[in-house]
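I hope you will forgive my troubling you with a question about protein structure. Here, with my thanks, is the record as I have it:
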Amino acid sequence: MRVAFALSALAAKQSVVSLIADERLSLEQELAEWKAEFRDEQVDAELQRILDSKFSVEGAALTNPDATFDWRNHFALLSNDEFKKYVAVSFGRGSHLRGEIIDTLEDETASLQATSKDWTTSGCVNAVQNQGSCGSCWSFSSVCHGSVHCIKTGTLLKLAEQQYAIHYAASGLCLSSAYPYTSGSTGQTGACKSCTKQALAIGSSPVSVTVEAGNNVWKNYKSGVVSVCPGSQSDHAVLAVGNDGSSFKVKNSWGGG
């Protein structure tokens, strides 16, 4: 049975995860019919994208022998231009804040300490999250203040990326439990939008930095130390959580694994 969709300008932006069962089933049936008619074209296009991703992995591995790369990730079917645009859109939405809250990785390089430091072993760094399709890398990078609070008090706060993404938190940050993150792919958020602001002092701690990530090295990175990364224009915000005197360890917001 076909289900009629009310496709207004607003409804056209609706997420598939919010559809009721009958609507989803109807959409799946239409997708199956479309695949039956255009399957050869679709398969060829997807195979080409997978092949391009595999070649990209080979190129990244050649220039970075101390790192491992894998095309099997949620960016595998994105072309190079599409991935670069995905990264750039996320970065651009926080451009007016970065001058205040983000230090560049180049500036931090000059002050690398001879002794190693890894904040991920301190119990003061929250787990890696996935920003989803919402362009908010800078909000995940900027809530490092929770780590600062933990270093000073021993209590790890999970601060609200969503508040940065929507309101930019000019006067303090809410706890994540009071203001849970809303991915652009679902549009769903928690009911409570109020909290007591936390006054957090910044000290020696993880630091928000910018990098150039709209390239095949970042797209396919799996583990290890990257020594050569194409480009020199910052387009992504991450959290530097450690260094060993010659390299940085950073926490990204594209999910674990």
User: Anything to note?
Assistant: The first helix runs from residue 21 to 63. Confidence is low (pLDDT under 50) at residues 96-114, 133-141, 159-203.
